Amino acid sequence: MSIMFISWCFVGFISLPQFQVLVNAQGTYSRGVYSDVVKIGGLFDGNDATEEAAFKHAVERFNSESAALRRFAFNAQFERVLPENSYDASAKVCSMLKGGVAAVFGPQTHESASHVQSICDAYEMPHVETKWDYRIRKENYLINLHPHPSTLSRAINDLVEAFAWDKYVIIYEDEDSLFKLQDLIKGSVPPRRNAILKLLPPSQDCRGIFREILRASDIRKILIDCDARKLENILKQAQQIGIMTYKFSFIITSLDLHTVDLNHFKYSEANITSFRMVDPEKPETQSLLREWASLTLNSDLATVSHGRGNYFVGDQSGGSSRRNVYIPGFSMEYETSHAIMIRTDIALIYDAVQLLGKALHILNQTIDVKSLDCDSSDTWQHGYSIINYMKMVQMQGLTGLVHFNTSGFRTDVSFDVIQLKEQGLTKIGAWDSKFVAKFNWTKLDVSEAEQDESAMDLRNRTLVVTTFMTDPMTMWTRSDAPLQGNARYEGFAVDLLHRLSLMLGFKYIVKPVNDGKYGKLDKEKGEWDGMIREIMDGVADIVVADLTVNKERQEAVDFTMPFMNLGISILYVVPSAKPPSLFSFMLPFSLDVWYYMAFSFFGVSVILFILARVTPYEWDNPHPCIEDPDELHNQFTFLNSFWFTIGSIMQQGSDIAPKAVSTRMIAGIWWFFTLIMVSSYTANLATFLIVQDLDVSIRSLEDLPKQTKAKYGCVDTGTTAAFFRNSPFPTHQEIWRKMVEMNKKHKVFMKKNSEGLKRVAEGEGNYAFFMESTAIEYNVERNCKLSQVGGPLDSKGYAVALKKGSKYRQAFSSGILRLQEQGVLDELKRKWWKEQRKENQCPAGGDSDSVKPLRLANVGGVFVVLIGGCIIAAVFAFTEFFWQSRQLAADDGVSVMEEMMKELKFALACRGGTKQVYKKSSSVSDNDNGTER
C-alpha cells in the first residue's frame, strides 16, 4: 500500500465514543467543579467536519487544563452552515444568539463570514475568525487570528528578495491570490525583477505552463500560490514534465506544505521552500498530537514515526503490516521519519479558544450570557469588554506569539522557513515581522564537516582586515598615551572582529582603506575601488565595516550572512512646538460645548424669568409696613434673571435669592450644572495651557513631495541615491525628480553624510536628509535636535566581505549566527549606539521635578477678554451717560453738551460718594390734598 498524507480527510470522528464522553453532540457540558459555564458558539462549513471536531476538542482541552486554575468552563455549541449561503448563516447565528453565547467562532467562507460579522457587530457579540481574509476590515467586534494579509505578503516578498530571484513565474489560483502577492507584484518591475503571472487552470492541469517554463532557458524559478490540497498533484505534473530537478527552485506560499505528501520529490534535488507557523517540535504541539492520536487510533495501529525515534499509541501489534491513519486536520505517515503534522487553520482554532479563555480569566468577572433576538435592538453589555481584552492578551500558542496591534490585526508574527531535503522538510531559517532583518538563516548550505574544516584552517592565521573610518563602526581610540597596532581603533566593527577572532581562533591586523572609499564599480573601466578592490587584489583578506550588501558587490566578492540590518530613512529636526493659540483658555471645551453652554445660559435665564412671574411666591410687598399694598414687586426681572445665572457660573453671588419651590429647583439644577462644568473646565485648563502641539510638517515619505517648507536630499553618490534613481515606485521617482530640480538652485545633494547632518541640525526644519537608518539612530542619540521620520524605506544589511570563493565564508557566517543567537550583536549595538561617546543626554520626556511657568502667549487671550470687557463696559457707561444727560438737558432747557460737561465735571472730580437728586423747577399739584411738592 502506498504511503499517504491524509490531513484533509475526516472519517467517522464525531461518532467515536471516546470523544462523545468529552463533549456530546448537543454541546452540553457538565458543570462539575466549575462555578460558571460559559457557552460559546461555532459555525462550521457543512463539507468540513475537521474544524468542528477540532473546535470541540479545543474546548475540552481548555476545560481540562483550566480545572485547577480558573472558575469557569466552556460549553461548546455549534451549527453547520451551507457554504456561501448567507441566509443559512444568518439564521444559524441568530439561533445561536437567542440561546445565549459569549462569542461566535467561524465560519470559514468569505460571504457567510461577512453576514455573521454584521450581525455580531449589531448586537455587540465578539466574533472570532481564523481564516485568511484578503479584505482588510477593522471591525469593533471582530478578531482574526490569521496573519494579516499585508504581513503575509511582505514575508513572501522578503523571501523572494532573500533568494535574489530576478525572473520567475507566479502560478496563482484565483484573484484573491493577488492580494497575498501584492508586495511581490509591485516589486516585480524590470530590470530589478521580472515576474510572469499564470492563472491556475480550472482543471488544475499545469503541464502546459511547465512545458513553457522548460522551453524558456532563462526561467528556473517558480512561485506557486494555491490551496495545499492541490499541491501534490501540481508538483507531480512538474515532475512529469521534467522540471523537478536541481536546476529549478520553487516557493510555495501555502502555510500547510508540511501536511502534503512530498515523498515523491525528496530525492529530486529541486529546491522547494515554504513557510510554516506551527513548530512540530514544540512540546505543546506534540502533546496535542498525542491526544488526537489517542482519540482516533485503534489498538492495532501501533507506531507513529516522530522525528529521530518513535512513540507509540495504543497497543503495538507486533505484526509487520502497517496501515495509514486518518486523523482530521493532521497528516500522519508510517515507516518514514516524518512526524504527524497539524494544519494551520486547525492550530489557529486551538489558539482562538485559548485566547478567549485567557481574556475571560483576565477580565475576572462573572459573565452572564444574554439571549439576543435578531428582531430586537438589544445588545450584550459584556461584548465590548471581552473583545478588547482579547486584543490586549499576549500568549504563546501553537502558531507562535499571539499578539494584536492597536487595530486588532495580527501583524507581529514569525514563520519558520522550511526547505525539502532528502530527510524531509527541514527548517533553514526564520522570518519575523518585527525586524527589518527579515531572516535568520539557521541552516547553511554546506555540511557541518566543511564548516569545521574551514574553521580549523582559520586557527592561528593572521588576517588583514580593511575597514572604513566612520562613527561608530571604526573610530580612533581616545587616549592620552600613544597607541600601536589594533589598539588604535575602537568601535562596533572592531569589537565584532575581536569576538569573531576569539570564537574562530584567528589573529588580525586592522587597516583603514587606502583610498577612503567603500567600493564602487567604474562601469567604463570595469574596475572597482575602495575596500572591494583591496579584497580582490589580495591587499586585505576580509572587510569588517558598514559595507552594504548589494547585487553588484556580490558579483565581485563573497558576503557572509548580515551582522546588522538597516534601510534608508529620513533624518529631520525634532518638531518644534506650535505657538499657543491666543484663545487657548477656550480649548478645554470644544466649540460645540461652548455653544451648548451659551444656549443653556440663555435658556435657563428665560425659564427662570417666566417661572418667577408664574409662581405667586416670587411676588413680594415692596413696603412691608403697608399691609394691603396696591402693587407687588418681583425681583426676577428679565435682566436680573440673566444676572443671577451668570453670577452662578462665574462662582460669584448676585444678592438675589429665589423663594418659591419652582425657582429654587431650577436654581439648584443650574448650580449643579455649573459645578460640573466649572470643575471639568478647571481640571483640563492646566493641561491645555501647558501642553503644546508639535508643528510636524513631515510625518512620512509621502509628505515630502506634498510640502514646500523643507528641501530634501542625500549623498550624491552611493546606494541611497541609486535607490531613488532606480526605484520603480512612483513616489520614489517623484522624490528623485524633485531632488534633481532642487539641486540646481539649493544644492540638496551632499558629498558625505556629515554635511547632511550639519545642514539638518542648522536648518530649523528647512532641510531633510536621506541616509541609512543605523547612522540616523546613532546621531539622533547624540544630537537632541535631530529625529528619524518614519521607518526604513528598504531592507539591506552590513556583512563581512571576503574574496570570491573564499573557504572561510561559512565559518564567519556560523560565527556571526552564534553571536546573534547569544545576543552579542544586540549588546554591541547598544554599547556603541546608546552608551559610548555620548556626551549629551537627550531628555526622554518632560521634567517631572519642575513646572514650567506659563508665558504670556499661554494666557494672552484672557487679557484680551479682560480688555474687551472693559471697553464694552465703558461703551455702555458712556451710552447711559449720554442718554441721561439728554433727558436732563431737555428738562432744564439747556444744550446736551452743556449738561454733559456739567455731569462729567462732577464725575471726574471724585468728591465723595453722594450726589444731589435732580428735581424739576416747576411745581406739581397734588390732586389729593392740594399741596405743592
UniProtKB/TrEMBL annotation:
Sorted UniProt keywords: Cell membrane, Glycoprotein, Ion channel, Ion transport, Ligand-gated ion channel, Membrane, Postsynaptic cell membrane, Receptor, Signal, Synapse, Transmembrane, Transmembrane helix, Transport
GO MF, any single term: ligand-gated monoatomic ion channel activity
Q: Does the keyword Secreted apply?
A: no
Q: Which residues form the Ionotropic glutamate receptor C-terminal domain?
A: 462-835
According to the lineage, what is the superkingdom?
A: Eukaryota
The Ionotropic glutamate receptor L-glutamate and glycine-binding domain sits at 472-537
**Does the keyword Glycoprotein feature in the UniProt annotation?**
yes
Give the family per the record: Belongs to the glutamate-gated ion channel (TC 1.A.10.1) family.
Name of the protein in question: Glutamate receptor ionotropic, kainate 2-like
